[in-house]
Amino acid sequence: MVSLSAIQASNANIASALPAGLVAVFVGATSGIGETALKQFARHTRQPRIYFVGRSDEAGKRVADECRSLNKDGQYNFVRADVGLIRSVDDVCRDITAKETAINLLFLTPGTMVSHTETAEKLHLATALVYHSRTRFIVNLLPLLQRATSLRRVVTVFAGGKEGNVDTNDLQAWKVPMLSTRGHVSSMVTVSLETLAKQAPEVSFVHAFPGAVKTNLSRGAKSLSIVVLRAVFKVIGPLIYIPNEEVGERQLFLATSARYPPSAGGAEGVPLAGAVAVARGTDGKAGSGVYSVDQEGETSDAKVELLTKLRKEGVPEKVWNHTEEEFKRITGVEAV
Does the keyword Nuclease apply (predicted)? Predict the structure, then answer.
């Protein structure tokens, strides 16, 4: 466990440890975890150039204005898009790749608790946002991440450390029981990051679980279970929610600290200090490039064992074959 004080100390060193002009892409950053992480990145970096993606022009303007108040020397470019659609993801990525030659950070948070809704591209919306859309962003922008000369990192915030068994006959999770869905999709996210890390060992990948955080993921969900959960969290939420600013600080640490280096080394991030050590990856080895971490930034032995089992069963290959098939079906190409 890394203490909050150690996290704050690391973040305070970003401006001196990392170069000016870092380029970052935040997807799903006009509310919740994405917004608070974006603001912390803006606050602590020198002359950042940030692209942030959301659905509301009004929210985009508000966030950009607030970022400018935190750091007037940064550039804050809002991109409006419905990232539940893979074709929209491709449009965003084309726009960014036309303007940038390298990216230092890709930070992903889109999600919803609305289930059993099909997108226009015939994907399960809940799975599309957390898995297909995010993976498409990574695939499309990976060449730019590989070209960065300093920090090179992907952070996807969902349910790191909460992996479970995967139903390879229902990868979109249309019929997976609700209580098993998080583990199913979480494992898909983690094994896909492992696949991508083999293609880009100079980039580090973090799958994070943020803990109890107040978000608007249940917006639009009308199932009885979600209605009950809303009622429960209305009562207990204030007692267990992690403060918004602390959430942002913790996510910024995951995005910038040398605790989570790429397997190939180099571009590690803000140097470690004190008792903070390099984290164990999803294979159980320190510094192996892919990290699935709980709210305290740690990897559990139980999940390392589970992921080892999934690899032996060929789950990563089945997940990736499904991913490429869906991308080709929808867009005709593996990447833009």
Answer: no
Tell me the β-bridge partners of 157. Answer: 208
133: buried, middle or exposed (CB in 10 Å: 19+, 13-18, 0-12)?
buried
Q: What is the mean pLDDT of the chain?
A: 92
Task: Give the model confidence (pLDDT) of 217-243 as tens digits.
Answer: 445 545 555 444 445 445 555 545 788
Beta bridge partners of 25: 51, 106
Which of 77, 191, 75, 81 minimizes the C-alpha distance to 131? 191
CA 156, 158, 164, 165 torsion-angle sign: negative
Q: Which of the two residues, 164 and 216, has the higher pLDDT score?
A: 164
Which residue has 């466990």 as its token pair?
1
- CA dihedral of 88, 93, 95, 99, whole degrees rounded to 10: 170
DSSP label at residue 214: -
CB 267 within 8 Å of CB 151: yes
Distance CA 113, CA 8 (A): 31
CA distance 251 to 281: 17
Kindly give, in sequence order, each residue whose CB lies less than 8 Å from that of residue 318, ignoring residues fewer than 6 positions away.
Answer: 168, 171
